[in-house]
Amino acid sequence: MSILVVGSVAFxxxxxxxxxxxxxxxxxxxxxxxxxxxxTDVKLVAVVGTDFPDIHIEGLKSRGIDVSxxxxxxxxxxxxxxxxxxxxxxxxxxETHLNVFSSFNPEIPESYRESPFVxxxxxxxxxxxxxxxxxxxxxxVACDTMNFWIEGKPDALRKLLKKVDLFVIxxxxxxxxxxxxxxxxxxxxxxxxxxxxxxxxxxxxxxxxFNHGSVFSAPAYPLEDIFDPTGAGDSxxxxxxxxxxxxxxxxEANLRRAIIFGSVMASFNVEAFSLERLNSLCLNDIKMRYxxxxxxxxxxxx
Amino acid sequence: MSILVVGSVAFxxxxxxxxxxxxxxxxxxxxxxxxxxxxTDVKLVAVVGTDFPDIHIEGLKSRGIDVSxxxxxxxxxxxxxxxxxxxxxxxxxxETHLNVFSSFNPEIPESYRESPFVxxxxxxxxxxxxxxxxxxxxxxVACDTMNFWIEGKPDALRKLLKKVDLFVIxxxxxxxxxxxxxxxxxxxxxxxxxxxxxxxxxxxxxxxxFNHGSVFSAPAYPLEDIFDPTGAGDSxxxxxxxxxxxxxxxxEANLRRAIIFGSVMASFNVEAFSLERLNSLCLNDIKMRYxxxxxxxxxxxx
Lengths: 302, 302
Hints:
The structure is a homodimer of 302-residue chains. The first copy, chain A, has 302 residues and is of the alpha/beta class.
């Protein structure tokens, strides 16, 4: 089954302890769709400026991503500049130029409206709601957000959460949104707001899923070096949603497998700048790392 | 098989977001031996002052802990005062009064010297080495340390590491000791210093074991509230070593099980101040939480 993703396509300039990259391809929808494309058909909705080179569009197409919803409009593409220090869980934003993204008003092409899976990447929750109004028949909707919207548009976010099946946020955001330090309590509060399932991303510490009273703890893959964490969360969501859409199975057991596939894709993504590593994978790499996650976490009953 | 533990017995005064406790029983050897006592015989070596009430000694005895190595000497017992904020991974030390502990020179009673398992809790690495010189026939030796010794006595610590099988430290200490931010690289450097196995404790994020080229990631138990983290690391080590000594099996599979038992004991310990929760367990509580760890981490092959 196919996935519709709505989010950003951007140019990132990133500095990490391991090097720097200037104006490389980034954006939540880019990372998500590249990651998900290993599992299923992806239909992308985003906006870029006239400075956006066709070669990047060709790159997305070559991964089978449907880009008929990628609008090119007069102006410059969204740009983000950030730095990571040795604490690679924490991005320090140096510059944000929304450019054409500031007037992004996602219109879902007719050919996308039957997508059973929908991922609303981190954009204004009012726009996320507008997207959902255009895809009434979605089978499974997931969304992300960020502290900016938690602080700036909490009511819209709460309204959105009543309409989604899965909410994916990071640890600090979960604490901020719920106003509680305990993640277990935070999860209960958030699930009371609507979504059936909550996934809390914890960077190099993995992820926690809260679902129907059960909790699943997934580790992160212990990498020699985390080269560049940019896009890890969206690669995670891409692997997760991609696997769910591929299998069409929304059981707890399959959600757990999907989280591991998400973690696999995130672990590859952080091995290089931009989409370098994500674009160079084969299915066997992905399956092998899935098995490594199994070995990493396995212990026997007593 | 029995375990010899050498460490501190202390009075702790602790403040957390959930309450405060004044002059309650604490100390690394106390937490360790109480935790390990659920699995095997424990022989404790420590020092207290004349202010140490017999009721605490009786409490340890009632858990079957051999206290013939617990010396009472003129002076006051070690006291520590600390505070935890909402980031419960980080203890803020307010006061440390070593008192009689400052001249601690552990003498291992004759009846203890055949203990096949030895745990050297966090004390001066020169003293840890002296202990090992008194128990030549140990089958499996584990040790802990802290940043104070990493900074103050790195050479003694390196010398000690050549003599131990298992080194248990926390994440920040692993990074500091190895001088590298990557835990995978840090682990390799530390294992090159001697120990066959390294366990890195990550507080509410669980633990990582590096052993013969394999890595095991254990989660922490997602608790509603972490009431007081004091003693979590030593309770962890107590469950881990206790299970290893109980089974006498040092295989990778059993080390993994032992880490889960350690995590189980730590998860109970943090549910209350001092040894309140650790002292009130039954074996069934421990086994049930082990099963919960299994459910928490289980995912199926693809």
